[in-house]
Amino acid sequence: MPDYSMLKEMKGAIFDLDGVIVDTAKYHYLAWRSLASELGFNFTEADNERLKGVSRMRSLDILLEIGGLEFTEAEKLAMADKKNRLYVEYISRLDESELLPGVKPYLDELRGSGISIALGSASKNALFILDRLNIAGLFDAVVDGNRVSKAKPDPEVFLTAAEELDLQPGQCVVFEDAEAGVAAAKAAGMQVVGIGRSEVLKEADIIVSGLHDL
Ligand code: B16
Ligand code: MG
């Protein structure tokens, strides 16, 4: 039986975005696949698993490694930009119906209990996505890919979020679906609720299939 007592003691809840609040991975996949196809190779859904929680430029490096291709930094920036334009077209159509099960009730419950809420995401599109999902107003702090210099598994994103909530790391619980994110939260000295499959989230303190389980 998992030990849920850490959730009763938490003062701050820090949420990852993709895979915890909304499944944007499917749109990242479509946009990366389109780029791969222009470059002449196939990019599968299994390949896409390697990009979850990883920054945009690191994702591109992994994609090019799969295709066995090399480019200059300037060419890579242009490709990442092109992929992002396509991705933004997809996420422009997001609405509340794409919130993952249990997200809205859980955020409302936390707010009702006086727990501070932050976002800790690698995405540079995070604020836009929260707006599209109509939940931006529920967050006391949003720390995204525009605001950190070191990507997960570095703890910077979560430590910055705790600071913005005016809390100590030990008072915060992180909700994460990616291995690098769980490692980042642990490195920050925080407890972690892993969302998803136990094989990839071994380091998490408890593992649930989604926020609807809490
Ligand atoms: P963007 P998260 C991550 O979101 C995604 O999981 C990852 O696939 C993506 O490459 C990264 O954001 C950057 O996203 O291109 O929008 O800046 O899980 O950290 O919320
Ligand atoms: Mg994620």
CATH class of the largest domain: Alpha Beta
Distance between the termini: 13 Å
- Total domain count: 2
List the total number of helices: 9
Order of helices and strands: HEHHHHHEHEHEHEE
Tell me, briefly, the overall form: globular
Helix percentage: 40-55%
Keywords, separated by commas or semicolons:
single chain; 214 residues; alpha/beta; Rossmann fold; DNA polymerase, domain 1; 6-stranded parallel sheet; 12% strand; binds 1,6-di-O-phosphono-beta-D-glucopyranose; binds magnesium ion
Helix and strand arrangement:
Elements: H1 5-9, E1 12-15, H2 25-39, H3 45-48, H4 56-67, H5 73-91, H6 103-112, E2 116-120, H7 126-132, E3 141-143, H8 156-164, E4 172-176, H9 179-187, E5 191-195, E6 206-208
Parallel strand pairs: 1-2, 1-4, 2-3, 4-5, 5-6
Helix pairs in contact: 2-5
The structure holds 1,6-di-O-phosphono-beta-D-glucopyranose (B16) and magnesium ion (MG).
